[in-house]
Amino acid sequence: MTLLIISPDYASHLLPLATLGTAWLERGERVVVATGPATASIVEAFGFERVNLQLARGSNPGVIRAEEQPEGEDDSLRGFFDATRIGMVETLAYQAGERLTDLMWMPVETAREVQRVVAEVRPDQIVVDHLAFSARLALTAGRIAHADVVLGHPSALPVAGEVYGFPPSWPRAFDPDPAALERLRELCDRVSESFTREWNAALLELDPSADPSESAFAEHGDLLLLNYPEELHDPERQLPPHAFLGSAVRDEAVDPEVEAWLASSDEPFVYLSFGSFLSVRSDVVARVAEALRSLGLRAAIALGSADRSDLGELPGDWLVREFLPQVTLLRAAAAAVTHGGNNSVTEAMTAGVPVVVLPFSTDQFAGAEALERAGFGVALPPNTATAAELADGISRALALPDDAATRLAALSESLRQTPGRIRAFEALVPNTKSSIDTRSVDARR
After folding, report:
1. Nearest-angstrom CA–CA distance, 280 and 52
2. What is the pLDDT of residues 152-196, one digit of tens each?
3. Secondary structure string (H, E, C) spanning 330-341
4. Which residue ranges traverse the bilayer (predicted)?
């Protein structure tokens, strides 16, 4: 049996998809990953085969910097970073405008390359990133069965009454201007219409007999897999046939420096990371660091592309590096401060760690609202929250009410007992009860 994983050349996308593939590898099955060269080392570390497939002009091996991107992508990234400094609606509007050009890179040529890879690999199952639109276009045009993995809040697949790029809900601390929201909604509607025309034009060229899509952003695979806990999903949102994976938490290699730091003290610590993109906002990282210092807490900070000099003098017992093993540290953390990315949220929930979410863009707002509604975290606006407000939010996260703490512990137990890789395998290989040890994610707790 062969599993083909199709992923953009971005570490944050490949890591959870590759983790799902370990369920096949542990059974002795063949796993092939189609992605670009920047993430080749990740594929190798998982022990999978790789075939080269470029799905976009940009890439991200772990920490993204505009100056390391190809021409065009660098300016797009700088524009995005600048928009996050202005405000949330401005960021969403910038992203919506960029979708007119960057969601399907060379769609027909890329789709034909995807179809060539499928013919070469001859997989029994295919797992594809939901945001790899050109790849999903290829599979749709080729009438090739596949599972479509949403790596984000479920609103990444809009349902009735929603439009892609417009958050269906907001955290309490956010109060966007109604007129600005109306303009954003109109822009997102125009982008959706434009993207659907682009999808249909490419689909017609690839398969002249195909029925056109009414809404390309609402297209999905034969099986929809959501890398998200069902317990956080609003049951009022009616989804197409699907399975919730909960989380795709990976095993990490032992890091001696991190292990020594964890063993050096029993004092609680807070883990801070804004991921591979938004770590560039070192001004916000600095305010969180100031809040943590004021509380007298230890901290582990994954700097990413943030400028360490912006953080001022840091306590000697803090762990601060460009990259840190997030899964390992979350297992031991008392709380986490995050931008609300899918990996950070699902990994924190698996570890049973409350969060302070500072959402900047895309589905992070809806994800932050879901955590806030569940009582598992505090959401604050990253551009305006003061160090004192951040300190208050961290204190509240560290002292969840008993009811919320009990429910978070139950969610953590569920996610650890049946990891996402097992749920994905059983969804894709029906009538097969997995014999894989489901406890490996919890082995070092």
Report:
1. 29
2. 899 999 998 999 999 999 999 998 999 999 999 999 999 999 999
3. HHHCCEEEECCC
4. none
pLDDT, residue 83, reads 92
pTM of full prediction above 0.85:
yes
Cα gap 221→341, rounded to integer Å: 23
Q: What is the dihedral of CA 190, 196, 202, 204, to 10 degrees?
A: -130
pLDDT value, residue 277: 77
Chain mean position to CA 285 = 19
Q: Which residue, among 80, 76, 97, 225, has the nearest Cα to 150 in the 3D structure?
A: 225
pLDDT of residue 276: 77
CA distance 297 to 267: 8
What HEC string does 6-55 produce?
Answer: ECCCEHHHHHHHHHHHHHHHCCCCEEEEEECHHHHHHHHHHCCEEEECCC
Tokens standing for residue 366: 């809806």
* Residue ranges in the chain whose pLDDT is less than 70: 58-74, 100-103, 431-445
Q: Which domains are present in the chain?
A: 2-247+418-431 (3.40.50.2000), 256-400 (3.40.50.2000)
Q: What per-residue confidence (pLDDT) applies to 67?
A: 53
Query: Which residue carries 């290829």 as its tokens?
Result: 138
CA distance 303 to 278: 10
CA R_g for the chain:
21
Residue 36's pLDDT is 94
Nearest CA among 204, 183, 235 for reference residue 111: 204
CA angle 246, 250, 254 (to 5 degrees): 150
Residue 305: its pLDDT value, please? 81
For residue 142 the two structure tokens come to: 């080729």
